[in-house]
Amino acid sequence: MRLIIYILLIFIVYKIFKYLSAPPVSSKNKVYRKTDAVDDIMLKDPVCEVYFPKKDGIFLNFSGKEMYFCSPECRDKFVKQNSKQ
User: Fold this and answer.
1) Which of 14, 16, 23, 81 is the most exposed place for a label (fewest CB within 10 A)?
2) What is the pLDDT of residues 7-55, one digit of tens each?
3) CA atoms within 13 A on the CB side of 10
4) Domain total for the chain?
5) Is residue 22 part of a domain?
């Protein structure tokens, strides 16, 4: 019976020490983020057909249409191909 009491006392002292040594947490600074949320939209480059995140894409407004490319080279190739038509 004494052993159970000693184990219980050690556990309580451990929990108190852990609580007191932890840094204070402010509810104002908590950031909640869904772990299954999508960080960015994946787009397909019309020239080389590679998928890339929209945030990393090269933007081009071509004839009123918003287009994104994986690199400046693909963008320039697209403009060169479509300017001849």
Assistant:
1) 23
2) 999 999 999 988 888 776 655 656 656 556 666 799 999 999 999 999 9
3) 6
4) 1
5) no
